[in-house]
Amino acid sequence: MTSWxxxxxxxxxPLVGAFFCLIVNGPKEAVERNCRSIALVTSTxxxxxxxxxxxxxxxxxxxxxxxxxxxxxxxxxxxxxxxxDGISLFFVLLSTLLTPICILSSWEAVHVRVxxxxxxxxxxxTFMVGMFCALDLALFYVFFEGVLIPMFLIIGVWGGHGVxxxxxxxxxxxxSARC
Length: 179
Known about the structure:
Mean pLDDT: 89
Strand order of the largest sheet: 1-2
Strand content: 5-15%
Number of strands: 2
């Protein structure tokens, strides 16, 4: 375990940004502008911190690095165990890189429920990073299934053009139910 829980910071920093987006109040235009800015700054800072993983990752070592471990339910062997290997490192980097790109690309494209959209994207980033870092099966399951909630909202609310439930959302629901 490292002395600094960098994986937890990368995984849960977007939730802090989502919380700040939720508490923003004021006129609609100001709330939208502030939520967009909070989401972009939070996701960019998360990406920059994830670059530290790449810089400090020792490719000559086998096994998991930056491990963080804490028991949750010791009787069942369930715990908070996070770490990365050479493959998950690049998935974390890709997830943290794509989130600010998605936020920037939707800057002017999303006009309805902007605050909720930015919160959904930040929560999605938390679940994606957590999923790629989880080393405990129960923790992986929580993150993996958690990804479906903001994805369903993003696809269902902002995935169509004026349709109450776009075909992409219903397809997502059917495919998720089969898994």
